[in-house]
Structure formats: structure tokens, C-alpha cells
Design brief:
By secondary structure, the protein is α+β, with helices and mostly antiparallel strands. 33% of the residues lie in helices and 16% in strands. Among the domains are: 76 residues, 2-Layer Sandwich (Ribosomal Protein S8, Chain: A, domain 1), CATH 3.30.1370.50; 124 residues, no CATH class. The strands form six sheets. Strands 1, 2, 6, 7, 8, 9, 10, 19 and 20 form a nine-stranded mixed β-sheet that branches. A hairpin with a 2-residue loop joins strand 4 and strand 5. It starts with 58 loop residues before the first strand and ends in a 14-residue tail after the last helix.
């Protein structure tokens, strides 16, 4: 999208703009071909399936418009952007009235009141001031005067100061340019709004909004969960005391986003305050027969899927996966972590590749940062933050330089390492024990904890403790004088009596993410965890570090997920540019909903389903399709299809002619 394409248009400002485009309209040099070297599924522990049905070919996220996500709020309501309206400010309940005016005159005299009124009516260059002797006043009286002046005069500022052992209240003309004081007239302190974004991840979107709102820390804008970059997603966001019109203005300056649905609440939005996500996904170029696809979907609906962490957790760089950086951080090898972040890699964009190469050869952070500034003027990239840290702290201060990276971004690396271990453990558990309950499997003691599904929080950091974890553990009553922590007591190992009672099924089983304050299964799985950690010179005890931001307490995650609301239909279309799913924005504009073409050349499968938070839709699709969902593999499928379509019929090999009836040879399918 161009800069004008990322604006929110409300009321009379609603101008139609192209929605499909995600590229800047300005002329740019042709981009070099990207060499996709993304991780294969077996490299991140994804090897098993719950079903044995035949898979089929289909392309995931061929277009951004093929992948839609709507957050489901904590109240169970679907987050949909329904209009572009901007709420009008309510009448200021603190507006001046005769009673307040009389109170102020009583406290400061009519003469002082008139003098302040003259400043109010004067132009903005007025340098007059009114001094009120407040030496004999109590603090409550001085506070009352400040509040009454603020309520009666919109362009007058009042401050208290000491002079010659006396107290005075000084009233001057309000400097709007530098003054941050605003009369907050909305019903509650926190502004909630729906953020609809297009081809940008949540952290990037929030960082961009914060920048245009004049907020120094992007963390001031909160959200319940992160959403994929490649897709169109709608979710709640929240910021303290920012006018809806200001948020709209920031969205107009930013790109790839729309805002609306404003509301106000007393408490801020926090991570985990959602029930799940609703997905609408188009799988293009489906070649299998309808009956075969339907059979796979029905079996999938009954059997569910393995709750693997998907590729998004690990990044697209096979040379420098995020879990490798996370491992270095957990080990305390901060130099190696920094070098991994700045290490050159094959599938970089040219601009960043040049920056990495410069730093790698010269180790001159200042020079590399100056080069990066030519392309990253916003300064929001992780590389920019880390190089800035080196410039500030010195080339060998790796710990403090890493602190320059936003906390959420640093946690991304640590989470990736834990996720890798979890994926490997759940695969080994299924390969060893199958899909049946086993003695020693872990389940939640309180099934309400399982229903919440907001438990994948695992980093010990006093600056930002996870509220949900606190809430869950506080519900557990653990006897005093015990060595079992509340979080460890959240789960219990299944006994033979438990299994024979039929109170539990495979969808109740949880596996831990490694940590020092966690309960492990009381079967062979426990030993597997320790063996795997030992490979990285770690243990559960070593996951508690001096740097608390890199200590891992652990967490629990459901091993299997079963969908209860899976729906599907087929759609015929002609070209890859055909829009198959209507977005919130297109619906608001009254654009026609896409329909199946009677004589369309291609077939798509449209899926709709809901997943709990932190579960990956691509892992659900993997179970249905039985194929590798990595970016590299999806690109190969697209390129193969294009090549076949462009090859004359007489020149096609036998394998190419049979592509519609054959399962492609993909890494994961051969395991």
C-alpha cells in the first residue's frame, strides 16, 4: 500500500481506495529474487499426524486476502470492524457552571478571577500572569483551586511554587505546543479500538501507531494477542487517554491499517484477554476430488490435530532460526546471540543484507547504523535497536545492548526455543504412545484452567508478570509447608483409575514447556525433557538465571485441539488475483461478496473455524492436507503450478500431466 492507502476514513472523510494492493506506489528499483531457505517442519519438531486420510495439494496464503483472522474477545464476542465512524466527544461534565464559578471566586477573590479571565480571552502570545497567595491554604484548597481553574478556563495553566518561604499559585497562558495536559472528557480512562491490519504483524502495527501518536514506548498500546503478518486481521487494541480522533489521525499517517469500533473501559487490555481466534481461509489450486477432500475434513473434525507451534514461531531463516538465538540467551551466551541477530543470511532483502555484511566484516556498529538509517528511518527494526545499543553502550557490552531491543521482541527468541522443545516432546510422545491416554500424562486439576487456554506464558520477569498466570495460580489452594509451588500444583499425572473412569480423553492432555517451576509427566516423557535439555548444556534447574528476563518458569500447553465449528465450501475462480473472501473493509464499503464462478478454471476450498489462543491455523491445515506448510514449500508449489500452466501440452512430462492426481513429494509426507 502507498501512504495514502493506509488511512482510516470516517464520516465524510471516507474515500474509496484500492484495498488489494500492498505495495508502495512510489517507483522503486526491482527487488532481487528472494532465496527461500525457511525451516522444514522436521527441523522444528513437527513430524506426526492424528489422522491417516490422504492429503491433497493446495496453496496456503497465495494472496494476503486468502487469510482472515478475527479475534474473539474475553466476552466471547467476535471482533469485526463494522464502520468507520468516529465517536463525538461527550459534553464535558466538568464544564464551568455558576456554582463552580462562585466557589472559585470565594477562594481567590473576584479581582483575581477577572484577571485570569483576561488571560483566557487574550491571544496565545499573552505573557501576563496572575499570582495567588496560597501560603495559608491547606493542600486540599490548593488542589480545589487548580481543578476549578482547569474546569473554568480552557487556555489557562496553573502551577504552585515556593518563594521566600511562601506558597503561590501562578496562572499563565497555556502553551498548547508544549503542554501535554488534556481535558479527558470520555467516560473511562482507557480507549479501546478495533485494529484491522493488512500484511503487517501486530507488533509492527502497534509500533507504527505509537510513533504517530507521539508515544515513546510502543508497549503503551496494548493488545490481547499477536496476529499473523500475511493476512487481514481484526483485533482489539488499547491505549490510555488518547482521543479517538488522535488514533484515527495516527492510522491515517501509518500504512496497512484501519481503526474503528471505539469504546472506553476502566482497565487496560492485557495479553491473554481473549478466548481465541476465528479464521476464514482460502486454499487455492485444490486438485483433489471433492469427495476426497470432504472425507479428510470429516475425519479431521472428529480427530482434531496436534497443537504444534507453527513456522511463525521460528522465523523464515533456516540459517539463523529464532530458537537458536533463544538458546544462546537462555545459556547466557549473549555475544553469540547478538552475532546471530546481525549475521548475514541468504534470504535477506538487499538493504538489510548490506548492513549485516558491513557489521560482520568491520564490527563497527556506528557505521552499520548510519547505513541502516538510510533505509529504516523509523528505527523500529530489531537490528536498528541492537546497533543503537552497541553505539550507546560500547561494542563489547552485549547484555545492555540487548536491552535496547523491546522486551516482547527478546521474549520472541526465548519462546521459540521453548516451543522447539515442546514440539519435539509432543512428537516423541505420540510416536511412542500413540493417541491413547497413558499413566503419567498430565491434565489440569481444575478444568476451568483448561477452558481458559491462556497459559502459554513462561518468562519470569518482575517488570511484566503475566496476569493470567497469577490469576490461575491464585485459584489453587496449596497447603503450607510444601515444596510444590502453586503453578506446579495446577496439573496432576493420570493414574490407571483416572483413565478407567473415562473422565478424561486425549484432548485433556497437556505437555509442559520447559522451566524451573513446572511439573513434568510422571512417565518416560520427564526423562526425555532432561535428555533434550542436556544436549544444549541445560537442565530444568539451569533455566533459572541471574538475569531474570531470561529465566524460564515454564508453562503448560494442550497437546491436541479438536474443532467444534468447522465449516467449508468449494469455490471456482479463474485467476490468482480473484478475491475469494470478503474483508471487513470491503463489507463496510458495500462491495459484493465473492461468488463461485460457474466455469472457473481453478478450485479453492474455503474453510471457517475457531481456535483457542496460541494455536496455529497452519497446523490445522497441515493435518488436513498432509503437506509441509513452510513458506519455501508453498512457494515451490506455486512456481510448479505456474510452470506447468505455461508449458505446451506436448512438452509435459508424465509426472507433470499426473500432478492433479498425485500427492506431491514433500519432506514431511515421507517421514
Amino acid at each position: 500500500m502507498g501512504r495514502n492507502h493506509g488511512k482510516h476514513f470516517g464520516n465524510n472523510h471516507h474515500r474509496k481506495r484500492p484495498y488489494q494492493s500492498t505495495q508502495n506506489n512510489t517507483t522503486r528499483p526491482a527487488r532481487q529474487n528472494v532465496i527461500y531457505s525457511s525451516l522444514k517442519e522436521n527441523e522444528i519438531g513437527i513430524t506426526e499426524y492424528t489422522t491417516t486420510t490422504n492429503g491433497f495439494t493446495g496453496i496456503i496464503k497465495q494472496r494476503i486476502s486468502d487469510f482472515h483472522v478475527h479475534e474473539i474477545g474475553f466476552d466471547g464476542k467476535l471482533c469485526e470492524l463494522e464502520n468507520f465512524s468516529i465517536p463525538q466527544p461527550p459534553k464535558n461534565e466538568n464544564a464551568s457552571n455558576e456554582s463552580e464559578k462562585a466557589d472559585l471566586i470565594r477562594l481567590i477573590t473576584q479581582e483575581k478571577f477577572d484577571a485570569i479571565l483576561a488571560i483566557e480571552k487574550a491571544d496565545k502570545q499573552c505573557n501576563d500572569e496572575v499570582l495567588i497567595d496560597a501560603t495559608s491554604m491547606e493542600k486540599t484548597e490548593r488542589t480545589q483551586i487548580h481543578q476549578l481553574i482547569k474546569g473554568n478556563f480552557s487556555s489557562v495553566n496553573s502551577t504552585t511554587f515556593d518563594k521566600d518561604d511562601r506558597k503561590f499559585i501562578k496562572c499563565t497562558k497555556l502553551n498548547r505546543k508544549h503542554d501535554r495536559r488534556r481535558q479527558w472528557v470520555w467516560p473511562h480512562e482507557y480507549t479501546y479500538f478495533l485494529l484491522h491490519k493488512d500484511n503487517i504483524d501486530t507488533m509492527q502495527a502497534v509500533s507504527s501507531l505509537a510513533s504517530f501518536l507521539g508515544i515513546s514506548k510502543a508497549s503503551a498500546i496494548t493488545y490481547a494477542g499477536t496476529k499473523d503478518k500475511r493476512g487481514r486481521t481484526t483485533q482489539w487494541a488499547c491505549v490510555r487517554q488518547r482521543e479517538p480522533s488522535m488514533i484515527v489521525a495516527a492510522a491515517q499517517k501509518a500504512r496497512h491499517m484501519y481503526v474503528g469500533g471505539f469504546t472506553f473501559r476502566d482497565e487496560p487490555l492485557k495479553l491473554g484477554m481473549l478466548q481465541g481466534n476465528r479464521f476464514r481461509i482460502a486454499l487455492r489450486q485444490v486438485t483433489a476430488a471433492d469427495d476426497d477432500v470432504i472425507e479428510a475434513l470429516k475425519t479431521f473434525k472428529e480427530k482434531g490435530f496436534i497443537n504444534y507451534y507453527g513456522h511463525q514461531r521460528f522465523g523464515n531463516h533456516s540459517e539463523v532460526p529464532t530458537h537458536k538465538i533463544g538458546l544462546y540467551l537462555v545459556q547466557g551466551n549473549f555475544k553469540e546471540a547478538c552475532e546471530c541477530i546481525l549475521k548475514p543470511r541468504a534470504n535477506d532483502v538487499p538493504d538489510m543484507h548490506a548492513v549485516r555484511q558491513l557489521w560482520w566484516k568491520k564490527r563497527n556498529a556506528k557505521e552499520a547504523l548510519e547505513l541502516l538509517k538510510r533505509h529504516d528511518r523509523s528505527g523500529r527494526s530489531i537490528e536498528y535497536k541492537l546497533l543503537s545499543g552497541f553505539v550507546k553502550n560500547g561494542p563489547n557490552d552485549y547484555v545492555n545492548s540487548l536491552e535496547s531491543i523491546p522486551r516482547n521482541a527478546r521474549l520472541m527468541y526465548i519462546h521459540a526455543y521453548q516451543s522447539l522443545i515442546w514440539n519435539e516432546m509432543v512428537s516423541r510422545r505420540i510416536a511412542t504412545y500413540g493417541l491413547q491416554l497413558c499413566e503419567g500424562d498430565l491434565v489440569f486439576v481444575d478444568k476451568n484452567d483448561a477452558d481458559n487456554e491462556i497459559i502459554d506464558v513462561d518468562v519470569d520477569d518482575d517488570d511484566s508478570k503475566d496476569d493470567k498466570k497469577e490469576e490461575i495460580t491464585d485459584t489453587e489452594s496449596v497447603q503450607e509447608n510444601t515444596n510444590v509451588s502453586r503453578f506446579q500444583a495446577m496439573v496432576k499425572p493420570l493414574t490407571k483409575i483416572d483413565i478407567d473412569s473415562n473422565k478424561y480423553n486425549i484432548f485433556d492432555v497437556v505437555l509442559p514447556l520447559p522451566g524451573y517451576d513446572i511439573t513434568y509427566p510422571s512417565n518416560d516423557c520427564s526423562q526425555w525433557y532432561e535428555e533434550r535439555l542436556k544436549q544444549d548444556d541445560l537442565s530444568s534447574e539451569k533455566l533459572k538465571r541471574k538475569q531474570k528476563g531470561y529465566s524460564l518458569t515454564g508453562a503448560y500447553r494442550k497437546a491436541f485441539i479438536k474443532l467444534v465449528d468447522l465449516n467449508w465450501y468449494f469455490m471456482n475462480y479463474d485467476t490468482e488475483t480473484d478475491v475469494l473472501i470478503q474483508s471487513d473493509v470491503e463489507k463496510i464499503r458495500g462491495e459484493a461478496e465473492p461468488k463461485s464462478m460457474e466455469n472457473g478454471k481453478q478450485k479453492a476450498l474455503i474453510l471457517t473455524f475457531t481456535l483457542p489462543s496460541s494455536s496455529y491455523a497452519t497446523m490445522a491445515l497441515r493435518e488436513i492436507m498432509k503437506c509441509d506448510t513452510s513458506v519455501a514449500n508453498q512457494v515451490q508449489l506455486q512456481q510448479a503450478t505456474v510452470a506447468i500452466e505455461q508449458t505446451p501440452v506436448g512438452d509435459k512430462s508424465q509426472d507433470e500431466c499426473n500432478i492433479e492426481t498425485k500427492q506431491p513429494k514433500l519432506d514431511v509426507a515421507s517421514q
